[in-house]
Amino acid sequence: MTKLAVFASGSGSNFEAIAEACRSGRIKAEVALMVCDKPSAGVIARAERYGVETFVFSPRDYASRDQWESLIADLLDSHGVELVCLAGYMRIVGGVLLERYRDRIINIHPSLLPSFKGAHAIADAMAYGVKVYGVTIHRVDETLDGGRIISQRAIDYDGDDADHLTEMIHAVEHELYIETINKLIDK
Ligand code: GRF
Fold it and tell me: What is the DSSP letter of 155?
């Protein structure tokens, strides 16, 4: 069975969608590890509910990103992880992880890239006044939200209810992440 790792910093709804799909057999894989850089993040309780092993760390406890990434890369190796899924992981992935896991790290972003990169994509797109929003899943490289695109889905929305739009985007994210992981692990 393919082993996945999910990296997250926030509430973890994408983590849960992936973990649930693995549990129900919709994804033929297992979440072997959840990595989180925020000890107060909601995703930790979700991982516990799913019985997924976690590595939770505070960046300030380490001298450098290389240091925590070496530890994480060793954990990925020891768990036999084949695909790393970033799901709201609010850090740039550095050279250590990219060197050891290049082409095996993917990210989900709540816009139609290359539009609206960065941490406030939904608010930025709404402020711009777009009428077609969307979700992108891409390979992770040295650039911010800049790696090769794997899949995208558009969402028509012509309103001003940010909460409703965010819900719509999350629902599409959960579905697209499951479909995309399945395609990647089927190859
Ligand atoms: C998602 O919108 C994802 O696209 C972005 O961060 C958010 C994470 O949400 N990168 P959640 O923690 O999975 O609920």
Answer: E
Number of domains composing the chain: 1
pLDDT in tens, 43-92: 999 999 999 999 999 999 999 999 999 999 999 999 999 999 999 999 99
Rounded to two decimals, the pTM is: 0.97
Q: Which two tokens stand for residue 162?
A: 């940010």
Print the domain residue range for 94: 2-185
The helix (run of H) or strand (run of E) holding residue 178 is: helix 162-186
Q: What is the band of 160 on the pLDDT scale with cuts at 50, 70, 90?
A: very high
pLDDT at 187 over 80: no
Question: How remote is the CA of residue 121 from the centroid of ligand 1, in Å?
Answer: 11
Band of pLDDT at residue 120, cut at 50, 70 and 90:
very high
Active site residue 109: yes
Ligand 1 binding pocket includes 173 (Cβ within 6 Å) = yes
Whichever domain contains 61, its CATH number is: 3.40.50.170
Find out whether 47 and 20 touch, Cβ atoms under 8 Å: no
Dihedral sign for Cα atoms in the order 135, 141, 143, 146: negative
CB-ligand 1 contact for 46 (6 Å cutoff)? no
Q: Is 111 in the pocket of ligand 1 (CB under 6 A)?
A: no
- How far apart are the CA of 115 and the centre of ligand 1, in A? 17
